[in-house]
Amino acid sequence: MEGSQNPQPGSLNHPLRVAIVGSGPAGFYTAEQLLRAQGRPIEIDLFERFPTPFGLVRFGVAPDHQKIKRVSAAFERILNLARFRFLGNVNVGTDISAEELRRHYDQVVFAYGSATDRRMGIEGEDLAGSHPATAFVGWYNGHPDFVSERFDLSTERVVVVGMGNVAMDVTRVLIRSPDELADTDITPYALSALRKSRVREVVLLGRRGPAQAAFDHGEIKDIAELAGVDVLVDRDQALAAAADTTGLDAGARKNVQYLAELAERGVTGAARRVVLRFLAAPAALAGEDGRVHAIKVEHTELTRRDDGSVGARGTGRYEVIQTGLVLRSIGYHGTALGGVPFDERAGIIPNMLGRVTEGKGGPVLPGVYAVGWIKRGPTGLIGTNKSDAKETADRILEDASTLAVEPSPERSAEAVDALLASRGVRVVMVADWRKIDALELASGKELGKAREKLCSIEAMLAACRAANS
Ligand code: NAP
User: Fold this and answer.
1) Which of 116, 359, 365, 407 is the 20 to 30 A CA-CA neighbour of 293?
2) Residue ID of nearest Cα to ligand 1 atom 14
3) Residue where a domain stops, chosen among 299, 331, 363
């Protein structure tokens, strides 16, 4: 064990040992900030529950957004850095606990994102044919937790609840020609299901108006520019929203102007269509033999809340939309990790600028940090995590200068490796990931695709073994 003469981590002869839990953008950007810090030796172990790194870049970003996925090239460079280790296939919480991490590391950063979805809380939500959009995203992206999901694409109309960027992603994947997805890294079973799909219409429900849509301009534009797809929006609603943009931010202004343009453009009679329904809130799902066959929608009107923000209230007027598949795309929600404080309502680890606190507004838990969605909630684009990571990394570095720790043999890479080995955990290191990566890229190349993903942990581990023999 180094540093026996100097118990201060971060001093020149005692590298600071930091564990980061979660290998999505927030985890990698934090690692980058810490490794870049001048004059302070830092060793980082980055834990990931899957054998593959990059979190939502691999499992969340849509297959037809390959450009966005290129951010992983920057993360690949971090994987190569000395003083950085990728420990894949290690489940923090079961293979090693949060308490154990605190014993083995000077500082621990939680960057494990928001693993579940929010619920609508309406009747019929659990009928067959009603799914969270996150499951559909995980399914087409080969997320091991969702590969065995099934979606009924024999229905002609799908209803997507919510008007955010995830709603845009699932709508695009459902409605665009499968031929346009064929050379991406979409999973083969999803491509095959989409080729057989009878879906001709996707209806999106926004409970507020066009000015409150949560999607970005570029995302709705991508859909409107798809070949063979019409986008329908209520002309009166769109023109009214565009006529008064007072108080709107630049993004909302751009959205309402574009929606008005779409409304004016009208339809071409294309074979497939996307219908944007504003001022329409989900009220209940109706089923037959346990399967959804319709969604009851309540018309809403905008209200001004006490804090000045715009809300929606029901008008008591309803309509029923027939559908065999409902995807709720109303946001993600974080989950608790044993031994780490958690704010159930917000779905985040309570923190002050990244320093974890014992409950909201409570005292700081020394040496424990949060970053990304589990710190701030499921908002923002991938790049948002860069500034978020800087905020947390700055706190980590600030605290490191005063953090006194007893040197102990437990605070070493060898001790962590021995603990995991004693529990039979097959840790996937960077060399193993390189084998998985090479195999996926090579199979993709043969098929004329960006990548052919391995979709189960077993297949990923087999790839590591096969390449060894
Ligand atoms: P989001 O942006 O928060 O959008 C959620 C949508 O669901 C909103 O339209 C919201 O309406 C609606 N909603 C919430 N609760 C509802 C309820 N009970 N009933 C009906 N509607 C409800 O979430 P997201 O789409 O999951 O995206 C998460 C984050 O990832 C966002 O920051 C997004 O920009 C990002 N992302 C980006 C991309 C990209 O860049 N291409 C792709 C995917 C995701 P209200 O506004 O009325 O609450």
Assistant:
1) 116
2) 330
3) 331
Average pLDDT of the residues in 301-329: 96
Q: How far apart are CA 430 and CA 433, in angstroms?
A: 5
Report the phi/psi class of residue 105: left, alpha or beta, with left for phi > 0 and alpha for psi in -120 to 50.
Answer: beta
The token pair at 461 is 């581990």
Q: What's the pTM?
A: 0.95
Closest CA to 277 of 246, 304, 298, 305: 298
CATH of the domain at 250: 3.50.50.60
Closest CA to 373 of 398, 354, 360, 358: 354
On whether the CB atoms of residues 179 and 220 are closer than 8 A, the answer is no
Query: Which residues span the domain enclosing 96?
Result: 2-115+334-428
326 and 315 housed in the same domain? yes
pLDDT tens-digit series, residues 421-466: 999 999 999 999 999 999 999 999 999 999 999 999 999 999 999 8
Q: Do residue 173 and residue 234 come from a single domain?
A: yes
Residues with CB under 6 A from ligand 1: 120, 161-167, 169, 206-208, 212, 214, 219, 281-282, 329-332, 378-381
Find the 228 Cα to ligand 1 centroid distance in Å: 26
pLDDT per residue as tens digits for the range 21-34: 999 999 999 999 99
Same domain, yes or no: 149 and 203? yes
Task: Look at residue 464 and tell me if it is in a domain.
Answer: no
Query: Is the separation of the CB atoms in 422 and 96 below 8 Å?
Result: no
pLDDT (tens digit per residue) in 113-141: 999 999 999 999 999 999 999 999 999 99
Is 140 domain-assigned?
Answer: yes
CB 376 within 8 Å of CB 388: yes
The whole-angstrom separation of Cα 81 and Cα 382 is 22
Strands 310-322 and 325-328: unpaired
Q: Which two tokens stand for residue 196?
A: 């057989």
Indicate if 405 and 417 belong to the same structural domain.
yes
- The three-class DSSP label of residue 37 is coil
Helices (H), 126-234: 133-140, 165-175, 188-195, 217-224
